[in-house]
Design brief:
Chain lengths: 912, 108
């Protein structure tokens, strides 16, 4: 029985009729064979096949009319066909598990990465803030021009100066509610070990402004704004659960905070985390009770009055601002001094550029995945050339065939989309872990929350819709190349050529061109991504290996917050400090222990007078004052800061002795050039001059990416009682920092340290316990986050592109098996064959990498703000990426090339 | 009013009558070939059956898989009520037209 004839009949008949038509054919064939012999039956079968082919279209039309009558339900017909196509596609694809799983996995990675990033965008840009009428919540931003800014650069600062707030509130007509708030930390005592809580002082109007009532109890009201009112507090849900186990009687129990009794008026709702999730309580901000020193600028949030536009509010803000600040100093500048922006825009603005970079990256990855899948589909469609040609020859319309092919791709993309949701789910969890850094509030800003609102990121209907849309678009995109190939299949040519498929077909060559173009494109895209990833990675490595000026290994840091009002007298404070440090030093494993008012990485600069008689040109007003820091005798040694000249603080530099000062290298260079400053007398705070006794190395103070600034160090012991600076030590960052250097893992000491503090000062809170290594690591969490994320995506892109080039070269080798066989039979040496195949791969890879490098030169400009220590066109990175990628591509080509050289010419020639 | 049946249609319908429950593509073709002595292609039978089904003269059903012919199903055909009337009308018309002509027809 001839299979080809049966195949023809099978293909020609509609699926519903296939079975019985074939049955009749078999029955008849057997009857013929019995009567006239097999040869005649064979002949009959071929004629029969042709007749069925002629009959089938008429039959189709006939059953079409029978089934559907005249109602013309074309939609039904379409859906019916679609169902058939989908079922057929699924069946076909299940028969090709390797092909299907590679395609689905590739698409899932591409779509999954996009879905994950979209879920972040969705939360930040499309999901409103969880407050009442969030579109009307606004913030005031002040654009400080360069000439007025403290650091000489134009600044955008949010909020108002606290003393100006009453004027803003009285004069504004465009804002219906206004509230200010500022951070505060308080020690909760009287309930076991004292704990330090982080919260906000807020205008009593805040809760009404946000429109979110507490879960239990009440929010503040206007009574809370008057001084002398009974102090009240609202607890966060998390703090309520953590410290009070969700006890509802909390509303009747007074709390002792910083030695003062507070009434708990309410507990906030679980998802209420204004202004950040770390906030554990809110207390009323009484303007007259605010400290006059410290930070004068407070955050402000406001609500636009009904029917007022942002422009109107901005215009009014500039009128009020001008009254408050005198004539507008931005006379020359086009930019308005004040702008009113939506609260969410203000929140998202700092991450918008990075978000765009991330989104572009994942789109690139998806495009690479698409190119790979398109190539796989092309390879498959050329394997199916004969089937397609026969179907076309038998009257299967191209449209129908195209639809079938499209259905297959969309089915693959849909499966990819489903898998992508799983991948996105995992990626979101990873994103959250990576971007939520549990850093102390005093650490350099920007390192605490890498992505705002990241805790709210979740897969909702918009994300699912996005995944579905992305899958559909991806499916269509991937089928473009195979579809255009389908249109070019010439049935006559293919069927004629069927017996000898020497790789000479016209369609083959055309298709080769498409495949090569796709590979070049994906290599180019992957090159761009790798360059970006390389730049961020190298930048991160440079940042983390920058000389920081101290040794963070085996160093534990923590703060001890004294109850307010206690130990105000500096002598007494000093005595307690000495006792702490002495007892810390006695713990086993401790090498040195010290204390300071400001740890490295806290962006706080206290500037003090520093006058040297030898340098009148650097007198007050001529240069920026250096930063001053207060330290205990052994602090600098505990931090592992190298001594450059002179000596350390010693026992002899106590109270009443000759005031002694240590300076850093930058300050020494600024004032003394190459001269040795040790021994010089300096005028600073207090009546007596200070003698420089030693020079230490520079410390990166605020952030690792900022150059060290001139600094000097004074010993706590030598400050006069009641010195304002000494008081600020405890009020600005909450309390003194202690530093303990140990022989090995310092975290094992924490219980001992706690008990030492608890024994001598029961109401003091030991808080913010971090190893110095952890602090350094947290301070660069943001660049690490982006470098890691884009690095992973870049490697993914490179792997996909390598698979892509491997696939194309392997396919070419297969198609040229006969040709290679002939060459080898005619005596071509193996190296020449290897060179032939590799040359082809090298041409593709070289072209792709070249295009990619040019593209990268233009695109990496957008990374400029995220880079440290190198420019966006860093030649080292470009060359390294080009070489590394060339290596990967070479490997991708080498495997199929080696297979080509191992071909046995005889069997290659015998192959069909 | 039904359009009168064509000659081949009548032959197919008569074969259906004769084959009763065993009427499907291959048997119908063989029946006509055998009785009418006329070689014909099965697709011709299919085409006619399609047309008859469209007119509501025959109806079809797919049978259970059979052990013969590789376990494939058969598509059985039978007359509908309309079909029965059409065959009867055709036969009656033919009978009336040929009444009394038997001898002369044989002699032709």
């Amino acid at each position: 029985m001839n299979r080809l004839a049966l195949l023809v009949i099978r293909l020609a008949t509609p699926s519903a009729d296939r079975d019985w038509v074939l049955g009749d054919t078999v029955e008849e064939y057997e009857a013929h064979a019995r009567a006239d012999g097999p040869a005649a039956a064979h002949f009959w079968l071929f004629r029969e096949a042709l007749r069925v082919v002629a009959w089938a279209p008429r039959h189709r039309r006939a059953i079409g009319r029978v089934r559907r009558g005249s109602a013309g339900l074309d939609v039904m017909r379409f859906l019916d066909d679609l169902r058939q196509d989908v079922r057929y596609s699924v069946r076909v694809l299940l028969q090709l598990p390797a092909f299907s799983s590679v395609v689905v996995l590739t698409l899932a990675l591409g779509i999954g990465a996009n879905t994950a990033i979209f879920s972040v965008v969705n939360t930040l840009l499309l999901t409103p803030l969880p407050y009442k009428d969030p579109d009307r919540l606004v913030r005031l931003v002040e654009n400080v021009p360069a000439e007025l800014s403290p650091n000489g650069q134009a600044l955008r600062v949010s909020g108002v100066e606290q003393r100006e707030f009453p004027a803003w509130r009285e004069q504004s007509r465009t804002l219906s509610h206004m509230a200010i708030y500022s951070p505060v930390a308080m020690t909760l005592s009287g309930r076991g070990e004292a704990v330090r809580l982080n919260g906000r002082r807020v205008s009593p109007a805040l809760f009404a402004l946000l429109g979110v009532p507490p879960l239990i109890g009440q929010a503040f009201d206007e009574r809370d704004a008057t001084s002398g009112a009974e102090p009240r507090i609202v607890l966060s849900h998390r703090a309520w659960q953590r410290y009070f186990a969700g006890d509802r009687n909390i509303l009747t129990t007074p709390l002792i905070l910083d030695g003062k009794s507070y009434v708990v008026t309410g507990v906030a709702q679980p998802d209420f985390d204004f202004p950040d999730p770390q906030t554990e309580f809110w207390v009323s901000l009484v303007p007259t009770e605010m400290p006059t020193t410290g930070i004068a600028r407070v955050s402000m949030i406001a609500r636009l009055a009904e029917g007022v536009s942002l422009e109107a509010a901005t215009a009014e803000a500039n009128v009020i601002g001008t009254q408050l600040r005198g004539s507008p100093p931005n006379g020359e500048s086009e930019q308005l001094r004040f702008t009113v922006t939506r609260a969410n825009d203000q929140l998202v603005a700092p991450v918008r550029p990075a978000l765009l970079v991330l989104f572009a990256t994942v789109v690139f990855v998806l495009l690479i995945a698409c190119a790979n899948v398109a190539n796989l589909l092309l390879a498959r469609s050329s394997n199916r050339e004969r089937e397609i040609a026969i179907r076309a020859a038998l009257g299967g319309s191209r449209g129908r065939l195209a639809r079938q092919m499209l259905t297959e791709t969309v089915v693959l993309a849909a499966a990819g989309g489903l898998a992508a949701i799983v991948i996105a789910y995992g990626s979101i969890a990873l994103l959250k872990t990576l971007s939520m850094v549990n850093a102390p509030a005093w650490l350099s800003p920007g390192s605490t929350a890498i992505l705002p609102r990241v805790d709210q990121v979740a897969i909702d209907w918009r994300v699912l819709l996005f995944a579905a849309g992305a899958s559909l678009v991806t499916g269509l995109l991937c089928s473009l190349a195979p579809l255009s190939h389908l249109a070019k299949i010439d049935p006559v040519h293919v069927i004629k050529d069927a017996t000898a498929s020497v790789a000479a077909g016209l369609s083959f060559r055309r298709q080769n061109l498409t495949k090569s173009a796709l590979v070049v494109a994906e290599i180019a895209l992957a090159t761009v991504l790798l360059v970006g990833a390389g730049l961020l990675g190298r930048s991160f490595v440079m940042l983390s290996s920058v000389p920081i000026g101290y040794d963070p290994e085996n160093v534990l840091t923590f703060q001890v917050v004294m109850p307010q009002g206690r130990l105000a007298e500096s002598q007494q404070r000093q005595a307690v400090d000495e006792e702490f440090l002495t007892r810390f030093r006695m713990l086993p494993g401790v090498q040195v222990a010290g204390a300071t008012n400001v740890l490295p990485l806290a962006p706080l600069a206290l500037r003090l007078r520093f006058a040297v008689p030898q340098r009148p040109d650097l007198a007050r007003g001529q240069v920026e004052l250096p930063q001053a820091r207060l330290v205990s005798r052994d602090y600098l040694r505990a931090m592992g800061v190298p001594l450059v000249a002179g000596r350390w603080f010693g026992e002899q530099d106590g109270a009443g002795a000759q005031p002694a000062m240590m300076i850093n290298r930058s300050l020494a260079r600024q004032y003394f050039g190459a001269d040795n400053p040790v021994g010089t007398l300096v005028n600073s705070i207090g009546p007596a001059p200070w003698q420089i006794i030693g020079v230490v190395d520079d410390i990166r103070q605020a952030t690792l990416d900022r150059e060290p600034a001139p600094q000097f160090f004074l010993d706590f012991r030598q400050l006069l009682p009641g010195d304002r600076m000494l008081q600020m030590t405890d009020s600005v960052l909450g309390g003194r920092f202690y530093v303990v250097r140990t022989n090995d893992d310092p975290t094992t000491l924490v219980p001992d340290l706690r008990s030492i503090v608890a024994q001598s000062e029961p109401d003091a809170a030991l808080t913010n316990v971090f190893t110095m290594n952890a602090l350094v690591s947290m301070s660069i969490a943001k660049p690490r986050f982006y470098a890691a994320l884009i690095g992973v995506l870049g490697v993914l892109a490179a792997v996909l592109a390598a698979i892509g080039i491997y696939g194309v070269i392997a396919y070419m080798v297969t198609r040229r098996t006969r040709e290679i066989g002939i060459r080898m039979a005619l005596g071509a040496p193996r190296p020449k064959i290897l060179a032939l195949v590799l040359g082809q791969g090298a041409a593709l890879a070289g072209l792709g990498i070249a295009i990619g490098l040019v593209g990268a030169l233009n695109l990496t400009q957008y990374l400029r703000a995220m880079l440290f220590g190198l420019g966006p066109s860093d030649p080292t990175t470009f060359v390294a990426v080009a070489l590394a990628f060339a290596g990967v591509a070479a490997l991708g080509c080498y495997l199929p090339a080696r297979r080509a050289t191992r071909l046995d010419p005889v069997s290659a020639l015998r192959e069909e | 009013m039904l359009a009168p049946l064509g000659e081949f249609e009548q032959m197919v319908l008569l074969a259906l009558l004769r084959l009763e429950a065993d009427a499907y593509g291959a048997t119908i073709r063989r029946e006509i070939e055998h009785r009418a002595g006329r070689p014909l292609a099965i697709s011709a039978v299919y085409t006619t059956l399609d047309r008859l089904e469209q007119k509501g003269i025959v109806r079809s059903r797919i049978g259970e898989p059979t052990p013969e012919r590789g376990g494939r199903r058969r598509k059985y055909f039978e007359l509908t009520a309309l079909g029965a009337r059409a065959v009867r009308d055709a036969y009656n018309a033919y009978a009336r037209m040929t009444a009394g002509l038997e001898r002369r027809l044989k002699a032709l």
